[in-house]
Amino acid sequence: DIQMTQSPSSLSASVGDRVTITCRASQGIRNDLGWYQQKPGKAPKRLIYAASSLQSGVPSRFSGSGSGTEFTLTISSLQPEDFATYYCLQHNSYPHTFGQGTKLEIK
Amino acid sequence: EVQLVESGGGLVQPGGSLRLSCAASGFTFSSYWMHWVRQAPGKGLVWVSRINSDGSSTSYADSVKGRFTISRDNAKNTLYLQLSSLRAEDTAVYYCARGSPSDYWGQGTLVTVSS
């Protein structure tokens, strides 16, 4: 199984900050990676697919990069509505695996 | 508008069974692979199972293999997950989701396994 190691597990930041979340795959997954945002009591929302493609309707302050085993999600300027938990997901092979999640909190 | 609506969750005793349903609308259901993902209370997301568009191929997480069965009825635009031999650790919100990486998700249905 492919393990996805996501870091950090939590992050405290302020409105306007630039933040980066990283996922590392235990083996190469090409660009078969998505990023999700989840707010309490809600279903996950896809932000990024194919590692770097922005989901329609998602603000351009979100961006993804990487290929192979190293991936990043960057939020260029945090907004109040961005405080949530973020997950990466590899869909290169079964079982699909999520990162452990990054809880982004207000400083 | 794409909609996925799960149902069938509830309280079940250890060793019991339950069938979850996911009613799809707003898209050509028979064209998409579908997934189930679960989330235990306060924990992260865990992929559970997938089925291809015509139902001829399935995959499962090791933790549910042999106990859960995914299926679909394309005539009814409905995805199913049969849960059997349930354990306390199966307690979670179960989401159905479309495609890979899933772009649309249902609101989830809570399964609680407890005596």
- Biggest sheet of chain B, in brief? 7 strands, mixed
Helix proportion of residues of chain A, in percent? under 10%
> How many strand elements of chain B?
11
Shape of chain A: globular
* Cα-atom radius of gyration of chain A: 13 Å
Distance between the termini of chain B: 40 Å
Series of H and E elements of chain A: EEEEEEEEEEE
Keywords:
heterodimer; A: 107 residues; mainly beta; seven-stranded mixed sheet; four-stranded antiparallel sheet; 11 strands; B: 115 residues
How would you sum up this structure in a few lines?
The complex is a heterodimer of chains A (107) and B (115). Chain A is an all-beta fold and 107 residues long.
Would you give an account of this structure?
The complex is a heterodimer of chains A (107) and B (115). With 107 residues, chain A is mostly beta strands. Chain A has no helices and eleven strands. In chain A, the strands form two sheets. In chain A, strands 2, 4, 5, 6, 9, 10 and 11 form a seven-stranded mixed sheet that branches. In chain A, strands 1-3-8-7 form a four-stranded antiparallel sheet, with no helix packed on it. Helix content of chain B is 0%, strand content 50%. Chain B contains no helices and eleven strands. The interface between A and B is medium-sized, with 23 and 20 residues.
Task: Please specify the SSE layout and strand pairing.
The complex is a heterodimer of chains A (107) and B (115).
Chain A: E1 4-7, E2 10-13, E3 19-25, E4 33-38, E5 45-49, E6 53-54, E7 62-67, E8 70-75, E9 85-90, E10 97-98, E11 102-106
Parallel strand pairs in A: 2-11
Antiparallel strand pairs in A: 1-3, 3-8, 4-5, 4-9, 5-6, 7-8, 9-10, 9-11
Chain B: E1 3-7, E2 10-12, E3 18-25, E4 34-39, E5 45-51, E6 58-60, E7 68-73, E8 78-83, E9 92-98, E10 104-105, E11 109-113
